[in-house]
Amino acid sequence: MKLKTIHNLQENDTLAKPIYNDEGQILLNSGVNLTVPMISRLVHKGIQFVYVEDALTADVYVDDVLNDSVRRKSMKQIHENFSEISRQMAMGKVVEMEKMSGQFSEIVNSILDSVRNHNEAVLMLSDVISYDSYIFRHSLNVTVYALATGQALGLNAKELHELGMGAILHDVGKMSLPASVLNKKGKLTEEEFAVVKEHTEAGFDLLRKTNTIPLLAAHCAFQHHERLDGSGYPRELKDGAIHYYAKILAVADVFDAVTSDRIYRDAMLPHEGLAIIQAGSGQLYDRDIVDAFSKTVAIYPVGTTVQLSDGRTAVVIKSTKELPERPLVRVTHEQDGSKVEPYDLDMSETLNITIVTCETLTEQLSDY
């Protein structure tokens, strides 16, 4: 299978993986031949990346960190619970978090089990999203990234569960924000951004009053926008005053935000998102956490067409935790652009070759 952007899809391309709506339900199943109206609908829904069938990579399998069952159940539960929280807040009622905390805990446990059993680098692609429910998918993705990073950092089972609860609920305070601000197209005014920043305190106040949710989860909601140099919000805390979990969430939150399609901008590629994180290492983000995250996330998604430093063109077919920047690739074109009988190249064993560009997500080869 091959990865394409929504804008590079063609009529009669065949889906290789299902596409889900924001409630975890299958929108279009694998094996469907896409029509122009279908593609238009996907564009309208904000879906950016799609896996399609491809003869040269027919044997390539994408090993998602979350299987379809866990993903659907998690998305559905997050959607239902966050919507109920929003409804209760809008009506001025006391939010009944105790009733929902057990469900959030079950989701965290399911995700943690999946992360523990996943041997490849992780990546949550934007193959499902509606613009008005970005927060649901974002909460799921940040939980996956945070738990994978926490595991790489050696956190124990109790710590991972606390981190997971903080991750899945880090943005719960946004349920108190006006939809007109939360989903605004274009740049926020200073007044609107001030309103958005209130979500950290709103989330903290909600979670700290809930006896069935770890207090540290409340601090995750409060501090995930703080930065080591004191440039964050809401309290401009510096390194030593920021909880370790919040430092992990800061990295996971920013990475997922910049690699997700939004109302006001297109998503960055994973390696571009990682470069932003690495540029802030030591100043904005904890160095050890950035290093662990860098070895955890798949910066070159399986199915991505890449240009190698010697001029050859290849498709990524596997990414490992140990060296995600040096995946296993399948060469399809030589330096002069001529097609070849595809052959595999393990970049972890060919250190003089590097990836210089990703073409699948920006410019497809017309004769691939």
Automatic annotation (TrEMBL):
Domain HD-GYP positions: 114-309
Pfam families hit by this protein: HD_5
CDD domains with a match to the protein in the record: HDc
InterPro entries: HD/PDEase_dom, HD_GYP_dom
SUPFAM superfamilies: HD-domain/PDEase-like
Signal peptide extent: none
PROSITE patterns: HD_GYP
Protein name: HD-GYP domain, c-di-GMP phosphodiesterase class II (Or its inactivated variant)
Record organism: Salisediminibacterium halotolerans
Classification of source organism: Bacteria, Bacillati, Bacillota, Bacilli, Bacillales
